[in-house]
Amino acid sequence: MPDQKDDGEIIESADNTQTRRDWLLISTLTLATAGTAVGLWPFIKSLNPSAEIQAQRTSKIDISAVELGEQLVAQWQGKPLFIVHRTKEMIEKAEADDGGTDPQADSERVERPEWLILLGTCPHLGCVPRFEETDEYLWVCPCHNSTFDYSGRVLRAPSPKNLQVPPYRFISDTEIEVGEA
Amino acid sequence: MAVLGATLVLFAGLVGVAAASEELPPLPDVSIPTDAETIELGERIVMARCKTCHSLQYLRDEETLQPLLSGITPDTAKKQFGVVPPDLSLIAIARPGGAAHTYAFLTGYENDLGDCEKAANRFISGGCTAMVDPRLSDEDALAITAFLKEAADPNEKIRVQIGIWVEIFLGILTVMAYLVYRRIKKRELG
Amino acid sequence: MAEKGSLSRVYDWFDRQLPVTELMENHATKYPTPKNLTYWWNFGSLAAIFLVIQILTGILLAVQYKNDPTLAFDSVQRIVRDVEWGWLIQPMHAIGASFFFLVMFIHLGRGMVYGSYKSPRALLWLIGCALFMVLVIAGFTGYLLPWGQMSYWAAQVITEVFSAVPVVGQTLVEWVRGSFVVSDATLSRMFTYHIVLVPILFIMLTVVHISALHKVGSSNPTGVEIDKKEKDKFATFHPLTTAKDAWFGLLVLMVFFAFVFFAPHYFTPVAQFIEANPLQTPPEIVPEWYFLSMFAILRSIPEKLLGVVALFGSVGILFFLPLLDRSPVKRAFSRPIFRWGLLLFFLDFIYLGYLGTKPPLGANLVAGQIATLYYFLFFLSLPLVTWLEAKMAAKKGAKDE
């Protein structure tokens, strides 16, 4: 049966080219896909904050002008930052207890007791609490009336958490650096 | 393909003509050093001397990250010299001839003032400049040029490095894609 | 019914509600392409590649760019220096524009040599001309954005062109600029046109262009339409043409990236590295290379209004090509007069580009005028050329008998 044999041969040789081409095609497509993926990486990376904004990751703030018992509202990474120069009485009030619903010792919240440094956004919905010195609390949030004590700890709900303490360090007695590079 | 190649060559030539510059004496044939040491020397000289009057506003102070502005304000400069001294961050690519022009200008002062009020320089159109001769040694002029070239195009090194790898990758991929095409062509066109 | 894999079930779900298979078959796996296409037929897909590059890099640049005269030049420097990989993205867009024009010129030239503007592809040609006009607008509006000296003064000169229009000229100039001179208002609108209007038109017209192409089918180098029934003269678009487009596209990308990485400032005149100064014109104003020929046409005519008419006419006349050239012969090489006329036209176009770099004085002015005259004469003489060629063919036919 010569016909059958011929057919068989043709199919076989066609199969051979097929396998060789497949190997080449698959490796080419793989390389092209990998190249496209790597090629898109710079495009994605370009959307990161630019070097100019990266430089604002940390801020140096001069605190020498803050009077005793007063608050300075500075900016760090575009967010409000509360810097309170606490009086002896304020420190005493802060150290008297561990706050309310989110208990934490005052010593864990300050580097130096006379300087309280806090992120000025209410943990509830991000409003900026108002500095208002009363017997009971030091800040009240204008949005939903959450109150915070002399260590920035939450006293009255709805805020679930204390005012956050940002990472900072004292460069000197009059200057701090906020943020971690 | 030959016609295509010729089209591309013609195109490159046309653009080359477009880049032809105005009439000045031929620029000195100088190779600008690229080693870190020379560039640093140039930076020191620029910061100590040039920056008194010239700003380098697209560069930043390493400490404060503020743009590098000149020692005198543009207004004062204008009163004192009649013109605001140009910013230097891009100067090495902002003149015909590029960095070679920077070097030529720095070393191209004439002793004879001619009709000029303040200073005569061969490498500026009109021949007069408001910038007095800085009296630089060739070595210092070259160092300044090296620094300004780096300042104008700070990504050159990394760009060329990455570029070589991109070209190698594309070269391999192009050859492989061509082989794929040749096989398909054989099959489809016989 | 046999059990189906989950992947094919997902495919079916889409296919039932979207013409997925239909689109793929109509435009790729079953779309017939003439087997005899040369590499001159690659430039349409190349244009599409550069459109994608321009859109991708353009979006990322628009994110970082500031369209305010006090900040624009600065923001481009910030992109190149401070944005991660900005030094790659910015030159890709700038060099991409040059390559886009180059590819478009060759694509248009191919169409002229092989009569791709003739029936049944007249509409296809017209849409292509519209795409070219959008590219011209893209080039012009985009060039202003870096706010360099050349950006500013090129825009000033070109917008001033409209003042040649009788009666409403000055009003028109102010309408285009949104101000008395090129200014903040001009930058804002050019930016908006560049990033909103241009991409919308470009994408829409490209879809229409490809739809029209796939309706009438590709032209081919013989200039003779192939009967759709002659199946052996066609191959499916995929894989033959896709593989050809892919490898040739990669080859061109190699050249493109060589410019991007090793000579990113190759097409940028030095004055572009100086911030725009409305009070000081740079010593010479030379437009981007792709506008040089049009620039030469504008300058060669000493009468202002006529110069402006010629400038717009030089692009506009492309739209009339199907009307002017009624010869049934498509392939330029098969036409005794047209072949030389067209060759001379291409050389004339390149020569005009060369003249665009020279001041229009003395011999250059005369040369520019002759070259401009020929540019238009080529188009306007086409009815006569066609008539003469028909006569020659008739004579030859009679002699052969």
Q: Regarding quaternary structure, how should these chains be classified?
A: heterotrimer
Distance between the termini of chain C: 68 Å
The count of domains of chain A is 2
Which parts of chain A are unreliable, with pLDDT below 50 for 5 consecutive residues or more?
A: 1-15
H-E order of chain A? HHEEEHEEEEEEE
Largest interface: chains, residues each: B-C, 49 and 47 residues
Mean pLDDT figure of chain A: 83
CATH architecture assignment of the largest domain in chain C: Up-down Bundle
Shape verdict of chain A: elongated
Description of the structure:
The complex is a heterotrimer of chains A (181), B (190) and C (401). By secondary structure, chain A is of the alpha+beta class. Chain A folds into 2 domains: 1-48; 54-178, Rieske Iron-sulfur Protein, CATH 2.102.10. Chain A is built from 3 helices and 10 strands, in the order ααβββαβββββββ. Chain A has helices at 2-45, 51-54, 88-96; strands at 59-62, 71-76, 79-85, 115-119, 130-131, 139-140, 147-148, 154-156, 168-170, 175-178. In chain A, the strands form 3 sheets. In chain A, strands 5-6-7-8 form a 4-stranded antiparallel β-sheet, with no helix packed on it. A 3-stranded antiparallel β-sheet of chain A has the order 1-10-9, with no helix packed on it. In chain A, a hairpin with a 4-residue loop joins strand 9 (168-170) and strand 10 (175-178). The longest helix of chain A is centred in the N-terminal third of the chain and has 44 residues, at 2-45. Chain A is elongated and about 85 Å long. Mean pLDDT of chain A is 83; it is low at 1-15. Chain B has 2 domains: 21-154, Orthogonal Bundle (Cytochrome Bc1 Complex, Chain D, domain 2); 155-190. Chain B is 51% helix and 7% strand. Chain B has helices spanning 2-18, 36-48, 74-81, 99-107, 138-152, 156-189, and strands at 56-60, 67-68, 109-110, 119-121, 128-129. In chain B, the strands form 2 sheets. Chain B has a 3-stranded antiparallel β-sheet with strand order 3-4-5. In chain B, strands 1-2 form a two-stranded antiparallel ribbon. The two termini of chain B are 22 Å apart. Mean pLDDT of chain B is 86; it is low at 16-21. With 401 residues, chain C is mainly alpha-helical. Chain C folds into 2 domains: 40-221 and 236-279, Cytochrome Bc1 Complex, Chain C, CATH 1.20.810.10; 286-401, plastocyanin oxidoreductase (Helix Hairpins, Orthogonal Bundle), CATH 1.10.287.980. Chain C has helices spanning 6-17, 20-29, 43-64, 72-81, 86-113, 122-144, 149-160, 169-177, 184-216, 237-262, 292-300, 304-316, 321-324, 338-355, 362-380, 382-400; strands spanning 32-34, 234-236. A two-stranded antiparallel ribbon of chain C has the order 1-2. The model of chain C has no long low-confidence stretch (mean pLDDT 94). Chains in contact: A-B, A-C, B-C. The interface between A and C is small, with 9 and 14 residues.
